[in-house]
Amino acid sequence: MKVDMKVNGRAVSGEVEGRTLLVDFIRQTLRLTGTHVGCDTSQCGACTIHMNGEPVKSCSVLAVECEGAEITTIEGMANADGSLSTMQAAFQEHHGLQCGFCTPGMVMAATALLKENPSPSEAEIRHHLEGNICRCTGYHNIIKAVQAASGQDVQPVAAE
Amino acid sequence: MPKDGGIGASSKRREDIRFLSGTGQYTDDINLHGQAYAYFLRSDVAHGKINGIDTSAAEGMPGVLRVFTAKDFDGVGGIPCGWQITSIDGQPMQEPKHPILAEGKVRHVGDPIAVVVAESLAQARDAAEAIMPDIEDLPAVMDMKAAVQEGAPKVHDDLTSNLCYDWGFVEDNREAVDQAIKDAAHVTTLELVNNRMVANPMEPRVAVGDYAAHSGESTLYTTSQNPHVIRLLMGAFVLGIPEHKLRVVAPDVGGGFGTKIFHYAEEAFCTFAAKQLRRPVKWTSSRSEAFMSDAHGRDHVTKIELALDADNNFTALRTETYANMGAYLSTFAPSVPTWLHGTLMAGNYKTPLIYVNVKAVFTNTVPVDAYRGAGRPEATFQLERVVDKAARELGVDPIALRRQNFITEFPYATPVAVEYDTGDYHATMDKVLEVSDHAGFEARAAESKKNGKLRGYGIAHYIEACGIAPSNLVGQLGARAGLYESATVRVNATGGIVVMTGSHSHGQGHETTFAQVISEMIGIDADQVEIVHGDTARTPMGMGTYGSRSIAVGGSAMVRAAEKIINKAKKIAAHLMEASEGDIELKDGAFTVAGTDKSVAWGDVTLAAYVPHNYPLEDIEPGLEETAFYDPANFTYPSGGYACEVEVDEETGRVEVMGFTAADDFGNVINPMIVEGQVHGGLAQGIGQALWENCAYDEDGQLISASYMDYAMPRSTDLPMFKVDHSCVTPCTHNPLGVKGCGEAGAIGSPPAVINAVIDALHRGGYDVPHINMPASPDRVWAAMQGAKANMGAAQPAARSTDTAEGRSV
Amino acid sequence: MAGAQLGPAASIGIEKMYDFEFDRPTSIQAAVDSLKTEEALAFSGGQTLMPTMKQRLAMPSKVVSLSAIEEMKGVRVEGSELWIGGATTHATVMRETAESYPAISSLAGRIGDPSVRSRGTIGGSVANNDPSACYPAGTLASKGVIVTDRREIPADEFFQGMFMTALEEGEIVTAVKMQIPDAAHYAKFIQPASRFPLTAVFVARYGDGVRVAVTGASESGVFRWTEAEEALSGNFSAEAVDGLATPDGSGMISDLHGTGDYRAHLVKVMTKRAVAAC
């Protein structure tokens, strides 16, 4: 069946089966490979995207359910001039990523948080990111990056 | 004043731009024209005899290109093992065949039985469900101790038993150790389990095989930490493809933690099938598949005895370990419980006599191999737990007991065959006590008590060995590979530099740190330096990244190659300035003649090398490209003091980590920001092992923790902000950068610190619990408290069928 | 802007589930009609169903999504009664009950994670009746009534054991009604891997008595701990719980994360904590 949606501001339509997952539509049909798949039990959050402004796990949404939806993926996060968004830049500045695999989902989840809560506490950030698993960073620098992106003071990057 | 570039600067990572913008190129992002998809049908029983596999229905299903079973691999080798261990009796270890697809028997849940290659993955999976394997259940071999008893069912019928090897180290010390333990004033004994772990890099494994008929070249794209090792093992031992016809590419790799070192059947399969079918063949692991096909880690059961004299000096140490190999020998599995474990048993202490016995056992479980730390966490956990237990038994301060026995003079030759070059353990101990505010602990404990919580403080001090070497020694120890590293430094005509390294980054940030070193050496901007890794067609033969070896070994190779470049460039500069080569200095990207104002820029020299019009052609060749292979003289020995503070909820047994401090001595540090990040990640994995993570099987060999629904990955809400320090520096004496490596320390030092803190908290609450096995999950801690309350002696919770420890104590 | 036309994903072939027909009706009646197809499955957010289907443990012929039925969405307060449309997401419940019924808001705000809360719905949760789900406890303790396309079923009759409910073939949960208590609290002790409750207790105090509903613990799914209800109805205090015998562990779930006895112990601890927090 046919599905129409808007992805990163661009109208797209494609033929899908009932069982086609949104993440597969994004990765395979649209070839937007920034969205990753890290598990098959809806736990890891690597596939987090925004659907109509809300964070969702694109491995747990059927593509056909997105008829008419506005989808934003990591590829749509940069500023109009191509520079990194505030959140993306904070992740680099505070070393909030290592292997980079969970990073797109993490950035999408963190960006959604600041929309709801512009100045979250450490505990609120941790609670909000509970469904995004990172195996590299121990979350320490991710928390700092999100605090920094929200304009809060954080400690310098390293003991220098 | 922090530097803004070069060695010691917290340079921002250049690779982050692609990872943050979604333009990283991971293996699953590679889609080749005409690619077909492989789906592996895997065993759902732990042990069974294959009476037949009926693939006829599957072969006729839509989109199916071919169905493969073991019979399709006649003439193809098994997956080789890269390390041979010799038993006490002088016999080589028992080494079973590890076929690409199960032959005759299935030996663990997840053992691949057949593969369907089809036009789409859905078609491949649909067809795999139509395959009818006729498998007769056999009793599962699960319990290591029972497995080595006479008459036990065998995992491999062609071996004499399930015992892979029985290793004694150092055998010559054995009698003296036994005697010292007999003569001791006090002996502390501890039986413990090092729980089985699943590495779980967030990127599951992927393999894409391709075959170019016009050139006869095979290419494998794979999620590997060491593409050259895969090329060598797969080409020479499995598929019989000469290296000049085989290219292995490991592009962006989403974490490894050891489990992506090894050569896996799926890699060989996709390479093989692509040639057979003349189509690219892709396999992408699901997470569920990863749990039953990625090599697991740890899974040791140990009895350790520490002997002390009347003054509390350590006099001897004896251990007996059962190490689970799983059903087959993974690539480096035999080395982990032996050379990566036994050699570390001295720890930071001047114990004069040590004997380590390790029995490696085959069971019907997923193969076990190196996982972050590999052998060293197992050694450290035993040692740092038994020292803490000894202090409690003797009624002395565990910190003082450690200090009293610290090694203080370097170099120090241990009784377990290694020589520590440098270290200052009192300094790191001082530092961890200071940064963790040890002095203020009692006040915090009192505060916790007011809130109904038991607070505990645990300390651990570790030593580790990185950059395993030298190659001639490891060859004698059974390694079937060299352990050098390589680098080619290519200077382009206009002065830009490409470094092609055999090291591989899968999160460590080599593209940034390696460029910092070159930038510092030559004095040019790091932007002028490109780091290439992960492609056998573009880099010299190298051994890859594991064992915290990249900067110590790979970085040293790069430095050596860059030194050759600089020496040659100086000759060119001397020619251009008509000066003596010995007077040439390189600083800030320019060559000068000492004592004069003569100068020639880096770019002028590099241009001269490639446009050699005014050039000493009679003395040196044109061009500016050098390769170095660096084989270290010794391991490096990072060390550190770790402190963990926990609160235990007495009513539920839940442990909360309130604070964690790591004071490490990594020698010199290239990029402090990245080093801190490495420690953070290691701590999360070590704390995860101590408190939540547990790969559990039931007695029938079913994997119980087979997804993130049951295998507890540390989450953002589980961990505190860490305090990390690396200001204690004793540079490594035998590599050019004075570096030691930092990738695994966090995972090595943290588990005993956590458990020591939990035990401390329980004792402060009046619960006499001498030990608790990892993970110290709420139910186990609660059960231990109930046991202590009921005065049940050892106070261990009853073993459950789901415990990896069940029935395994030695 | 002209939409880009893209080829079918099927030709690339990465689908993991069995294929099925898909329908997304916009009214309850249309959904009921659509579900008359044999092996059709109602899908309300799918945050539990999707992983099950990926493992090929469920193979519906047709999936009927309830996500476009506006009459099944929203939160309304009528006197002391809270009405939550069956297709209302956890995120919406969290936001919209913060004032009217904070304990339910808190429960909704702690289900899964933000992404799960954006998609998962109360109707999906109660209809699935996972033995470790949160909503069944909140519903049962809050004198809940499950409204379907054809009848209203008291929660006490609706939840019939692990993954079992009173729902008939093709029957849809269109809304859940709860009575707002004088005080309530949901005390949740998580299983460290799944983050579902290992054991969680919802306590609700009404003028005519106290309700205590337990999830995560029993092999029979969500249940009311009647001994605690009786004790607390007379003396609403943590001490009243202290005086009770620990529930029998023999019918409790025993797994990797805790024995039946441990869960039974947690029932008591979590009840006490919920009462103390009311």
TrEMBL record, chain A:
List the coiled-coil residues. Answer: none
Q: Which InterPro entries match?
A: 2Fe-2S-bd, 2Fe-2S-bd_dom_sf, 2Fe-2S_ferredoxin-like_sf, 2Fe-2S_ferredoxin-type, Beta-grasp_dom_sf, Diverse_Oxidoreductases
Query: Which UniProt keyword terms apply here?
Result: 2Fe-2S, Iron, Iron-sulfur, Metal-binding, Oxidoreductase
**Single GO MF descriptor:** metal ion binding
Domain of life, source organism: Bacteria
Task: Please name one Pfam family that this protein belongs to.
Answer: Fer2
EC number(s) for this protein? Answer: 1.2.5.3
* UniProt signal peptide: none
What's the protein called, per UniProt?
A: Carbon monoxide dehydrogenase small chain
Organism of provenance: Palleronia abyssalis
The protein's gene is named: coxS_2
UniProtKB/TrEMBL annotation, chain B:
Keyword annotations for this protein, in alphabetical order, are: Molybdenum, Oxidoreductase
* Occurrences of domain Aldehyde oxidase/xanthine dehydrogenase a/b hammerhead (ranges): 21-139
Q: What is its EC number?
A: 1.2.5.3
Carries keyword Oxidoreductase?
yes
InterPro entries xrefs: Ald_Oxase/Xan_DH_a/b, Ald_Oxase/Xan_DH_a/b_sf, Ald_Oxase/xanthine_DH-like, AldOxase/xan_DH_MoCoBD1, AldOxase/xan_DH_MoCoBD2, AldOxase/xan_DH_Mopterin-bd_sf
Q: Which GO terms describe its molecular function?
A: carbon-monoxide oxygenase activity; iron ion binding
Per the record, the domain of life is Bacteria
Q: What is this protein called?
A: Carbon monoxide dehydrogenase large chain
Source species? Palleronia abyssalis
Specify the taxonomic lineage: Bacteria, Pseudomonadati, Pseudomonadota, Alphaproteobacteria, Rhodobacterales
UniProtKB/TrEMBL annotation, chain C:
Against Pfam families, the record matches this protein to: FAD_binding_5 (PF00941)
What's the protein name? Carbon monoxide dehydrogenase medium chain
Q: Which GO terms describe its molecular function?
A: carbon-monoxide oxygenase activity; FAD binding
Note whether rRNA-binding occurs among the keywords. Answer: no
* E.C. number: 1.2.5.3
Q: Which keywords belong to this entry? A: FAD, Flavoprotein, Oxidoreductase
**Carries keyword NAD?**
no
Q: Which InterPro entries match?
A: CO_DH_flav_C, CO_DH_flav_C_dom_sf, Diverse_Substr_Oxidored, FAD-bd_PCMH, FAD-bd_PCMH-like_sf, FAD-bd_PCMH_sub1, FAD-bd_PCMH_sub2, Mopterin_DH_FAD-bd
Q: Which residues form the FAD-binding PCMH-type domain?
A: 15-183
Q: Which organism is it from?
A: Palleronia abyssalis
